[in-house]
Amino acid sequence: MRIDRTHRPWAIASAGMLALSIAIYVPYALNAPQGLRGGSAIGLLFGILGFAFMLFAAALGARKRVPVWRLGRAQTWMRGHLWLGLLSLPLILLHGGFHFGGTLTRVLMWLLIITVASGLFGAALQHYLPRMMTTDVPLETIYA
């Protein structure tokens, strides 16, 4: 799936949600005596939103395995998977106040960071490789 102008609404909505989250986080974190923690009301809100976005991103796999589920277009699911999955990382970081906590939390955060980074790398490959292949090897392109 190429990232083109059809992704603009998703990108704008994701950037808007991130900006709103930061606008909520900064005053609360500055006024919190011990800093923002995951158990506070705002921290729980960020955690719930981040987890919901991760569940939506994971639901794409279930939708692909059960093709009789006619829940929206596949393109919409892919765009949501990309942009909401990307937005889940900063929301989870805001949830924990940028503290990784104990060993389990640290491992889970690094796994989330690796997952999002590999997703970004895969999206970049999907965007650039087809164009590079058709320009570098024009006679090998199958047009049918």
Provide structural commentary.
With 144 residues, this protein is mainly α. The chain has one domain. 73% of the residues lie in helices and 0% in strands. The protein has helices spanning 8-31, 41-65, 74-95, 103-136. The longest helix is centred in the last third of the chain and has 34 residues, at 103-136.
Write the layout of secondary structure elements.
Elements: H1 8-31, H2 41-65, H3 74-95, H4 103-136
Helix pairs in contact: 1-3, 2-3, 3-4
Overall shape? elongated
Give the fraction of residues assigned to helices: over 70%
Number of domains: 1
Helix-strand topology string: HHHH
State the oligomer.
Answer: single chain
- Average of the residue pLDDT scores: 84
The share of residues in extended strands comes to under 5%
**Which structural class do the helices and strands define?**
mainly alpha
The number of helical runs is 4
- CA-atom Rg in angstroms: 19 Å
Could you list the spans in which at least 5 consecutive residues all have pLDDT below 50?
A: none
| Terminal residue distance | 19 Å
Number of strands: 0
Biggest sheet character: none
Keywords:
144 residues; 4 helices; 73% helix; mainly alpha
Write a brief caption for the model:
73% of the residues lie in helices and 0% in strands. The chain is mostly helical and 144 residues long.
